[in-house]
Design a protein that fits this description.
Its main location: membrane. Residues 502-575 form the AMP-binding enzyme C-terminal domain. By secondary structure, the chain is an alpha/beta fold. Helices cover 33% and strands 24% of the residues. The chain is built from 20 helices and 30 strands.
Amino acid sequence: MTPSLGWLSALIAGFFSVHVLQKLCFPYFWRDLMFLLRVMRYGANLELFKLRSRVHTVLDRFIQQAQRVPDKPFVIYEGSVHTYRDIERRSNRLAHVFLEDVKLRKGECIALLMSNEPDFLCVWFGLAKVGCSVAFLNINIKSKSLLHCVNCCGATTLIVGADLVDSMNGILSSLQEENIQVWAMKSHTEHTHIHTLLDKVEAASEQPVPASLRATTSLKAPTLYIFTSGTTGLPKAAVITHLQSLKAAAGFWAFGATEDDVMYIPLPLYHSAASLIGIGGTIELGATCILKKKFSASQFWNDCRKHDVTIFQYIGELCRYLCNQPPTEEDMIHKVRMGVGNGLRPDVWREFQSRFGNVKMCEVYGSTEGNLCFMNHIGKIGTVGRSNFFYRLLFKYDLIKYDMVKDEPVKDQHGFCRTVKKGETGLLLSKVSALSPFFGYAGSKQLTERKLMRNVFAKGDAYFNTGDLMAEDQEGFISFRDRVGDTFRWKGENVATTEVTETLGLVEFIQEVNVYGVEIKGHEGRAGMAAMIIRPGFSFDGSKLFEHVMRDLPAYARPLFIRLQEEMEMTSTFKQQKFQLVQSGFNPSSISDLLFVLDHQQQSYIPLTDCIYHSILAGERKL
């Protein structure tokens, strides 16, 4: 063999050896690198905004798409097609009404209480066009919580959907006292203190309002407030800046979606998943979305087939509902290729793909207000995201040891936190920095400060506390384990135990109450359970408690189970002990305390018998 051929053979053998080594030791190297380069390219564009005098926002992108593809369907809702031009013109009309009739001014915050419908987008964009920030209100909240949400974000005006006007009855007088005007998406109303919008929209101009009204020079300027349940009781208004909106709008694109995709959005628009990722992502691509007023398991696949849906948004519970539908011969007849969401359990994930085909499920981890996001671009079952050498160069996060019994981080002799080893479960913290800022909540600075942990590993550092227990394996895949503190998740919603505790505390026969979540086999998240002590001289009244929770709590926050106790267990720092209660669950055969279960048929909390307990485990009882 000649020297040149020998050199060539050695080079080929070397390349082959490196390739084999990479496949064996770093199997995801190229996929990680390509994904991160894609994300970094988008991030670089955001950095360029800082060098310009004007920020290009998600709204600007929508207006750009309305000019580029005016006749393309943007939103399809209940059989009606709304093009980019349609939504652009109607939002222009609303912008004129907001300026001329409602008398809104740039910089004001406006609260929006609307169900999923095209006019939600038109109102949102119309408000943004006149330079107002918008607070999305959860349509399930009532009375005290609703009033709190309007107040805490400093809203001067409340805009209400036609189907939600009656929910104003309990708070109209309070809103009047605080000079907050209420406008409804109706042509006429019998409420003397509610103004109407639709009758004014038809007469308004569809020409754009001055672009200077919506212009902003800072990526960090607030554009939305999205409410999230936390550990402080009442909902908190997370500040959503233009920077966060733009990052979220890149979600579909980062997973490989294109303008030819059709998105299915069955989640509520008042949540960040549907509004920021769903609508924002559709706009970024110039794609089409199918908007549902409310998720329907029985209609889901027929909708997907009818509209040639290729990507859908989900929460884990949604996928479980789909798997629980009766099997049909058409289960695999569809064009859906990808799902984007969070909270998908491994067993449901496997069943979903086995039954409905090889749909790539892209889990996204990140809270509305958080400064960290994981994206499972590999699609590995049971993981919420992936970290690697490249990711850690850009984002600083740690998993720290956490004592579940004491409900607090484990610290060393110097008072600093300790990280867990690979594969161990720890509390996820994300470092607050210029690259990963935390914008906090509207209102009291104390709310923002409570989500931060300081002096974690060194004096002066600050970390965002996610409140989530996670684990990272040897390959860098990250899995969700549990939530800590005073929040649990049920029916796709975060339940703040202190808010439920305060509400239950108003019942005359309850002296003390401890609210927590318990696992139910086959159900995503945790169902609400309340351990309580009955006030001396009183007795437990299941009917009265049922009436109280039905009136004052949204469906997802109502405790399903009640446990009567003689005394409450406390931690050494005088916090209510939840760990043992959570662990013991709701099995009447292993708990000596009296147990009760919510029963809609009898409109009461009735004794939880072994028979009822087993019917719940068998999935025979509707929860």
